[in-house]
Amino acid sequence: MNYNDTLNWMFNKLPMYQRIGAAAYKADLNNTIDILNYLNNPYKNFKTIHIAGTNGKGSVSHTIASIFQEAGYKTGLYTSPHLRDFRERIRINGEMIPENDVVSFINTHKKKLEELELSFFEMTVAMAFDYFNRENVDIAIIEVGMGGRLDSTNVINPELSVITNISLDHVKFLGDNEEKIAAEKAGIIKRNTAVVIGETQNECKNVFIEKANENNSPIYFADQIMDCKKENLYSIDYQQFDIYKNNILYLKDIKFPLLGEYQKKNLATILCSIDILRNTFNISEENIINGLYKVVKNTGLMGRWQVLSKHPLVIADTGHNIAGINEIKKQLANTRYDKLHFVLSVVNDKDIDGILQLLPEDAEYYFCKANIPRGLDVDILTEKAIAAGLKGNRYKSVADAFDAARNNAKNDDLVFVGGSNFTVAEIV
User: Fold this and answer.
1) 10 Å Cβ neighbour count for 57?
2) Which residue in 79, 343, 366, 425 has a CA-CA distance of 20 to 30 Å to 202?
3) Across the strands, what pairs with 49?
4) What are the backbone angles phi and psi of residue 25, rounded to the nearest 5°?
């Protein structure tokens, strides 16, 4: 098989949560353990950092990887989902896994993959760990796919576990309140291994503390240690912060190109994590400063309040649950523009009504459906949106909606693209 044949086999032969949703979810680690045993447990040959959380884990994973790259470590990065190219999920020092390596892994192990009936995600985790091992990475930053306790990545024994935050998402699988979801994500806390919690949330705090105590694991709440004070400047290129650790100046005039008010929370999580890791890794202040500033260049991160053009201002963001949309709404309020043109499509397993209630009413909406089975039918989305007080028109594709928004936008307007990873993926 060539690369395209291989991808088609992976996407169609095996269930893929990203495309079909619930039918692809497997609530145990047995298959992952089996395939990794077959591959001689490659993950045991390199160090790891494990990152879970409802929102922010992609930004945190990429930025920690960028800092390690700046410190001279050969750094693996495993994330999901991808936006445009499957290979975005598996990178070393920012470079995607070569097409030949994807093809070779599938061709070599195809019989075993079929025999075990692996899910798409299980197979991809195995591919990533095998690739990182063969390429002799010094460390790999591993982002959880969903939850934590039963996620395929949860076989590793990391140097540090990180849980960014908890909010309602994937409730069908993880639980219908924050405490239950926190218990699933706390499953990545390992014995005698420090854990960083990004946000102190009353509903979840004790869940994490109890799990950490059970495992004799030091626990740190990043927002109680790091205070990121944003400097009052308006830029669509970067945010600038002074960082205080335990109320003492730690880093000054830090430039961070990931925009959005919500990145302030992620920055505290990143810096608290790196501060702990500096006890065992050689990471200088200069490495931290450069790693933060160069995160997009170093890792290829896309879709986090990403500025696609400036006149008119075009921004894409992958926030797709209640907490994510709430942060987008806050950031829109802090952005300068005359009129908002909002290209919106969502997937059918989110709290659609809750999301629509949060969106600004003083915008022109361009309703559409991303080109995946999980996408919510555009007629249903339009009907629900109008009932929620939003105004706009439906379009037959994300591309058509985006073209219409750009054509209608004047020079000082804002075109925003969002609602799901898949909406953004068709534009960036």
Assistant:
1) 24
2) 79
3) 141, 160
4) -80, 130
